[in-house]
Design a protein that fits this description.
This protein is an alpha+beta fold. The chain has ten helices and seven strands.
Length: 364
């Protein structure tokens, strides 16, 4: 079999076009590498994200468009039926590559906004809002791209939308739990009862821990024993949720009892404890501060301390509480009193004791 170039007149054009594509690919690759080095010296969010998102889609776009032109040249020369759908396939390829680029761009921006570099800026960034907007924009891009692909393949978008409206009813009944979780997640994003990183707990359910991720279907919570807890979002529309991370202060509320024999110094104990709290640098005097005698207990005279710390940090709060309690103990001991403990007093009648002794002697 002899190869005759005149039988394949398109070979020269294809060869030249392939060389052009290789050259463009080489130039674009070097340009991207050069820009990447320059952008590393800047602190702009968008240029880094744009370059990283466009790196592979741009190279693929060159080959997709160039390859379609090569096939078009071959199709004109051979007049094969298989090349009749080339225009539609080219349009679909372009749409998919652009969708890939836009989704990657949104993802790169989201990753950079959630990174430590940007989270330490003067204006704090709400991670929950960033994640919600990122998911929403990516979903919109995918839906629009899918509709454009269907249109380029010859399907009627109006028919697809009409079918979606009818089919949505059936899907709604079949996937009501999934939809409930979706709208539950949407309400969490809109109402924002908690954000990623918050410590939450529910008095209605055995739920307590730090929020790690808020998805469209479920929320991942890291419990204090470091186990992941996955909660369906629909649950949050049916239960009460406490958010201790947003408290303004932490409360110290303790009841302390002294012995009945120390009743004479109880007023002085209360006065000195109140003065100590008013002078304490970690106590918030803008909140309620109460130190009062309030109960005759079985074995003690009880007074209570009710005040708030300035800090909300759990570890720091316990250090302050320990310091307050130890100072109260020093005040009590300094006045010659002591903290009470449960005691019982048994009183015996002397006559009964003497009679018992005489009976014992007579029996002997």
């Amino acid at each position: 079999m002899n190869f005759q170039p005149e039988e394949y007149p398109w070979l020269g054009d294809v060869f030249v076009l392939v060389l052009i594509l290789l050259s463009l690919n080489l130039v674009l690759g070097r340009l991207i590498s050069h820009l990447a080095k320059k952008f590393e010296a800047t602190h702009n969010l968008w240029d880094d994200a744009l370059l990283e998102a466009a790196r592979r889609p741009a190279l693929l776009m060159i080959w997709a468009v160039g390859g379609s032109h090569i096939l078009e040249i071959i199709g004109r020369s051979t007049e094969a039926e298989v090349f009749s759908t080339l225009d539609s396939l080219r349009a679909v390829g372009v749409v998919l590559i652009l969708a890939w680029f836009l989704v990657s761009l949104v993802r790169q921006v989201e990753l950079r906004l959630l990174s430590d570099t940007y989270s330490k800026q003067d204006e704090p960034i709400d991670q929950t809002t960033v994640m919600a907007l990122g998911k929403l924009v990516r979903s919109a891009i995918i839906i629009v791209s899918a509709l454009m692909v269907l249109q380029n393949l010859g399907y009627s978008i109006s028919g697809v939308l009409a079918f979606g409206g009818i089919g949505g009813i059936a899907v709604g009944f079949a996937a009501k739990d999934l939809l409930a979780n979706f709208f539950g997640g949407l309400m969490v994003y809109l109402d924002r009862p908690f954000s990623v990183g918050d410590w939450i707990r529910s008095p209605d359910k055995n739920i307590e821990g730090t929020v790690e991720n808020i998805g469209w279907r479920q929320t991942r919570i890291r419990t204090f024993d470091q186990r992941p807890l996955y909660v369906p979002n629909a649950t949050f529309s049916q239960i009460s949720v406490e958010n201790p991370s947003r408290m303004l202060n932490r409360r110290i509320y303790e009841t302390i009892g002294v012995r009945y024999e120390d009743a004479s110094v109880v007023p002085e104990i209360i006065t000195q404890v109140r003065a100590m709290l008013e002078d304490h640098s970690d106590i918030d005097l803008g909140k309620t501060l109460i130190v009062n005698f309030n109960k005759y207990n079985a074995s003690s005279l009880d007074f209570f301390v009710y005040t708030f710390t300035k800090t909300t940090n759990w570890v720091e709060y316990h250090k302050i509480k320990q310091d307050v309690l130890l100072r109260i103990l020093e005040i009590i001991h300094g006045l010659g009193a002591d903290v009470a403990f449960p005691t019982s007093t048994i009183k015996l009648d002397p006559i009964s004791i003497e009679s018992a002794s005489e009976r014992q002697r007579s029996s002997n």
